[in-house]
Each structure stands twice: as C-alpha cells, then as structure tokens.
Amino acid sequence: MDPDPLLFLYDYPEKKNREIAGFIAACFAYGRVDQIMKTVGHILGKLGPDPFTYLMTRTKKDMANEFKGFRYRFANESHLVHLLWGIRTVLKKFSSLENCFYEGTESTDENVLPGLVFLFEQMNQHNKTGHLLADPKKKSACKRSNLFLRWMVRKDQVDPGGWDKISPSILIVPLDTHMYKTGLMLEFTQRKSMDLKTALEITQGFRTVLRQDPVKYDFCLTRFGIRKGMSMEHLKKAVCG
C-alpha cells in the first residue's frame, strides 16, 4: 500500500482511539500525500497512544499551548484546536463518534447524509473549524467525511473498520478527481461538477454492481492515476477492453 492516511488507523486497536485518529487523518487528507502523512503524524504524536484520554483530560488552553504555531495549508492552530475540542464535545455527550453519527442515521436507510449533518452540527457548534469540516448541507461532495466513513464502516484487507452499527450499503463514494473520471468512464454520471449530486449518482452506479457495499472498489480504482505506472488509460483498457 502506498503512503496513505488510512495507515494511521492500524496503529489503534481500540475503536475509541481509532475513530479519533481516523477522523483527524481524514480532515487533513488534502494536498500532497507526503505532507498529509507528516502533518497527521505530528498531530497524532502529540495526542499519544491514547487520543481518547488526551481529549478527555486536556483543557482548550492546554491544546492551544501544545499546538501553538501549527499550520497546514489553510488550517491554523485555532482551526485545529476547535476541531479537537469539537471531537471532545461529541465524546462527552455521546461517548463515541459512532454513537453520535448513528443517532443521526436512525431514521433513514437511504444514505449517510443525515448522520453527517448531525455529526457536523454537534461538532462544529461555533463554526470555528474552518474548512477542516465540510458542511453536508452545502451540497459539497464531502469527500473527506465519506473517506472517514469508508475506513470505519467497512472491514476488509484495506479498511480496518470498527463501527458495527452502520451498514456499508448506505455509504457514499469519497469523490475525488480519480473517482470522478472513473464514474464518467463507467457512464455512472455525465455531470460536469464534482458535487454531492455527482457523488450520489456514481454511488448509485456502483450499487447496481454491489448493492450492499457500493464503495468496496473505491481504494483499488483510485490507485489508477495515483500510483506510478497505473494511469486512467490502463483502467479504461482493463474495463472496456
């Protein structure tokens, strides 16, 4: 497996720590992969081997002191501290991120959007996390949020899982440029913008292939265009002949 923020989740055998590490890794999963790995590694290093205990025992002032001067692209120390404090707020109220998300999905079996909206509202009550948290109500594809859900809900040789209350059948593809090109090639969508509607159309296309696990092929398909020697042309030739 190439360097991928997903790898950080394998360092945390306990679900309570894995979901925190995974959420942080997903929030910073934009930009160059080497910088993503360096930044996430730095943050998780500060949180130590037990991120849950860290969040439950630190004050906001403690966090601000420990991450003083932090910056990653558009994110600064204030955005990071408010993200960590938002995670802590959810943990204090719901005991886990999974419980919070699940409460938002209990009334639907269509897709994960209600859960994402509820989690966002609980975690970002003061709107101070900047762009680290995508607002599902603004109709963006919420690629990083859906990536986090794939990591935690699915369990196979790639995704470590840990969330047992959510069915993989309601996941939405984490839509990036590679998955978008794949969706166009497979004629799952004809849309020109990489927004939520496009992500839902592509997900529906994969549901016709595997209804119970529409994002199963996300990791392997998006390697085309990422790994050296694996271009979109190679994928097109493999699929279309």
Keywords:
mainly alpha; TIGR02757 family protein; CHP02757; globular; 2 strands; 2 domains; single chain; 241 residues; two-stranded antiparallel ribbon
Overview of the molecule:
The chain has 241 residues and is mostly helical. It has 2 domains: 5-166; 173-241, no CATH class. 52% of the residues lie in helices and 2% in strands. The protein is built from 12 helices and 2 strands; from the N terminus they run H-H-H-H-E-E-H-H-H-H-H-H-H-H. It has helices at 15-27, 33-47, 51-57, 60-66, 77-94, 97-105, 113-123, 143-153, 177-185, 196-207, 218-222, 232-240, and strands at 71-72, 75-76. It is globular and about 50 Å long. The chain starts with 14 loop residues before the first helix and ends with a helix.
Number of helices: 12
Q: SS-based structural class?
A: mainly alpha
Work out the strand percent: under 5%
The number of domains: 2
Question: Fraction of residues in helices?
Answer: 40-55%
Q: Low-confidence parts lasting 5 or more residues at pLDDT below 50?
A: none
**How many strands appear in the DSSP assignment?**
2
Distance between the termini: 26 Å
Mean pLDDT score: 92
Quaternary state reads single chain
Helices and strands, in order, run as HHHHEEHHHHHHHH
Shape descriptor reads globular
Query: Biggest sheet, in brief?
Result: 2 strands, antiparallel
Strand order of the largest sheet: 1-2
Rg over CA atoms, rounded to whole Å, is 18 Å
